[in-house]
Design a protein that fits this description.
Length: 187
């Protein structure tokens, strides 16, 4: 025979208050861990005291596409990635690089897509000529369809004999009313 199991304590679920305290501590720790990075990022994105440098940063940022928004320039976007790109532009220009060198750095890193006006070369031909070609093809297809609709032969009218045969097949009398089964069998 086996000995009866000893009574054990039943585990209780943590109370809502204890769970709330744990979540609050976790959120506080996460917020505190991100503050140094946010402070460093804000310092990098802060405009410099040199107005000429800021004018160059703004002009060059207006030529770069935001990688997140895609329909805005880096200068116009509020996305964090755009802020990082502006900071990178500012850092490189402050280091003495030219606008072309900064653009080359960005295209080496992100491809021609980062340029708001990509260069005309073999890799971007579809980008430059795709939309106009699509409009031309759509216009030609519409024109072809309209011409075919106008060139379609007119529907020939039925002769009296064909019309009488159709009425007989459909079971209609001469007035165009349908005859009932009994009326057809009497006829």
């Amino acid at each position: 025979m086996t000995a009866p199991a000893s009574p054990t304590r039943v585990a209780r679920a943590p109370s809502a208050a204890a769970l709330g305290v744990v979540i609050a501590i976790a959120l506080l720790a996460a917020t505190h861990a991100q503050q140094p990075a946010a402070t460093a990022n804000a310092a990098a994105n802060a405009p410099s005291a040199d107005p000429a440098l800021e004018a160059r940063v703004k002009a060059l940022s207006a030529e770069l596409r935001c990688l997140v928004c895609q329909n805005q320039t880096v200068a116009d976007s509020d996305a964090p990635v755009a802020a990082d790109l502006r900071a990178q532009v500012r850092t490189q220009l402050a280091a003495g690089k030219s606008e072309d060198e900064v653009k080359q750095y960005m295209t080496d890193r992100f491809g021609d897509f980062v340029l708001y006006r990509p260069p005309l070369k073999a890799g971007t031909l579809l980008l430059w000529f795709g939309p106009p070609l699509a409009l031309i093809v759509a216009g030609l297809m519409l024109l072809r369809r309209l011409r075919r609709a106008n060139d379609a032969p007119a529907v020939a009218a039925l002769s009296d004999a064909e019309r009488a045969r159709a009425r007989a097949l459909l079971g209609e009398d001469d007035d165009g009313d349908r005859a009932t089964h009994d009326e057809r069998s009497r006829a």
